[in-house]
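Dear colleagues,

I hope this message finds you well. In preparation for our joint manuscript, I am sending the Diguanylate cyclase (Paenibacillus helianthi) sequence together with its predicted structure, so that both groups work from identical material. I would be grateful if you could confirm receipt.
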Amino acid sequence: DMDAHDGLLGSRSQESGHIHGMPIQQEILIIDDDVELVAFLRESLEKQSYYVSIALSAERGLKIFYEGKPDLILLDVLLPDQSGIDVLKQIIGKAKKERIPIIIVSGEHAKDIQMYAYSLGVMDYMPKPLDIDLFLVLIKNRFDLKREWQESIIVDELTGAFNRRYFNQTMKQLVSDFRRTGRIFSLALMDLDFFKLVNDTYGHLIGDEVLQTFSEVVRHSIRVEDTFCRFGGEEFALFMPNTDAGSALLVVDRIQQQLAARTFTAKKEEFQVTFSGGITEVREVVNEPDRLIGEADQALYVSKNTGRNRTTL
Ligand code: GH3
Ligand code: MG
Ligand code: MG
Ligand code: MG
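The corresponding structure tokens are as follows:
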């Protein structure tokens, strides 16, 4: 059985790459029947801290592709059971959608096959015998591009805070962590005060600048394990793992002080900006995560109605 090699050829090595502090180990799926080449590639790639899965047949490769989640695929053209091009036709749609680069590695240099592979959407076609140095640089390049894309879909362009999509992911993660481990966390909502007035008085560009400065202030006041998100227009959220409401209040108070120390200048005038905050703490299992937003929002509403520039638990 060709696939008996899989156990032998695959093993976990260290993580490679980070997305905003979260370690990400990149998984490379090699679909190739050349056992010697595959062993050599595995060794070279694991040295670079990639995790490697091996398939010596098309059938096995397709199984791993659909059941696992490889981050990049190396695909041979001549395989024992189906042609690599047939495999390509089956996986290219999903691979494109999920930005999984496919690199054809082949001893088959016929121009029409190369053209066909490119026309199907393959980005790279590497000839055998493989130049390993060139190959490693190419892979790194593809992962860098992918990471940029991954970041771009979770980060708000104006402020650099995480976006609503990432807010939702983080909420899910923390709620399920709590269910598993009982690890508490706090959620703070922060809404800039009279922000419409800033826009109306000084213009939208100045308003944007205020949003950027506010975000900068927050990022300097939080820990790496905290997650800062733009929740909506001038409303922001801060997740603080392992933090009770009292400690969360200290963090938000500090942000309030730091922001108060900033002076903005526009139309030859100086002005200051404040925000109101609402905090909720999670110390029991949450079945409906939206409830937490509701609780923090209610506390925020109290801050708005009792003079603003304050935070309510
Ligand atoms: P309150 O103290 O009650 O929160 O009053 P407010 O004026 O801050 O709240 P309101 O919801 O009335 O206005 C929010 C404003 O934020 C309106 C909207 O145009 C502005 N805004 C939302 N997103 C952006 C943005 O990306 N840039 C700028 N410049 N303004 C924005
Ligand atoms: Mg082959
Ligand atoms: Mg506001
Ligand atoms: Mg608002």
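For the figure legend, we might mention the following. The longest strand covers residues 185-192. The pocket of magnesium ion (ligand 2) is lined by residues 32-34, 76, 78-79 (CB under 6 Å).

With kind regards,
E.M.
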